[in-house]
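Q: what does this look like with pyridoxal-5'-phosphate bound?
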Amino acid sequence: MTRIYMDNAATTATDPQVVEAMQPYFTEVYGNPSSFHSFGREARNGVTEARDKVADLIGADHAKEIIFTSGGTESDNYAIKGVAEKLKDSGKHIITSSVEHHAVLHTCQYLEKKGYEVTYLPVDEDGFVNPADLQDAIREDTILITIMMANNEVGTIQPISEIGEIAKENDVVFHTDAVQAVGSIPVDVNELNVDLLSLSGHKFHSPKGVGALYVRKGTPIEKYLHGGAQERDRRATTENVAGIVGLGAAAEIAQEGLEEKQEKLTKLRDKLITGIQEEIDEVKLNGHRNKRLPNNVNFSIKYIEGESILMKLDLEGVGASSGSACTSGSLEPSHVLLAMGLCHEVAHGSLRLSLSKYSTEEEVDKVLDILPKVVSDLRAMSPIYNK
Ligand code: PLP
């Protein structure tokens, strides 16, 4: 059976060109980037080149503004805890949204236990934060705004530039979790008015376990890992050189092919969306129809459980998800869909199909062939579906 992978929002396949770029850093260029000798210098050069490539991808003014991390979760933790710690004497109020990834939400909840106050902004039925709500929520003691660029479950792209403008006018530090956006849509830290931005390599064809935090020059942030003086004394530990080189290669490839990839994926996404709407009755597209990631499709399929659709699809060789990879193991309905106003039953029947540059039209056609049958089989067994 040929298998079809449509869970690229969870993680992507590493690009063979990225693997090739990394290869020498395991066997030949194995020096410690902090070492003085030529072995160290070679490794350091690899890290430096990668930093330039990541900075280029997100339009950073200086490569120095890129700090390599172990991925999106660490970048989010570092940004939020780092600013909270540094500015604790100026205020203890943080603003975020109710549809953030758990890497942000759980970090904010942790800080609440430490005496910080967090405002969770509501979203509308498409998952958008209203900038006017943000303006109203800002207080004298607000030290940080953290709002994601694109949602990992429903793909909705927030008006980050406008939100950043409000943060700037009010002199509040602004962080965005752009883990799903980077490599998928254009991201420019200056156009977006952000001070801090999280990205993760494995969402755009670099290996897992490597990411970065962009920190605009002058942003107040406490250091994260204490130890050596790596990453300009902000994050100790010997660099994951091969992973960083892989992230750099993936950034370069993503930047070169971005327009073409966006165009291709938007077509495939739209074919999936209209196909599902035509072939299956009583479905609801979650997230905005157009202001969504080019690779994201998310539907609530009424009268059946998301988990049972996933199991049936898996038997047919299709890898999909019912939401974020981290919550799909639990039977809790998605906090994102609930925040968008869906009731528990409808939120339970959600299916996310997420594409990558390796997805093909044949795969989309195959899924459009398999899915309606899966749904009608399950509905035939459903006591609440009577047609
Ligand atoms: N933020 C968002 C929006 C994500 O989608 C993810 C991963 O799913 C993360 C953060 C966490 O990234 P990582 O898996 O690199 O820790």
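The chain has a mean pLDDT of 95. The first strand starts at residue 4 and ends at 5.
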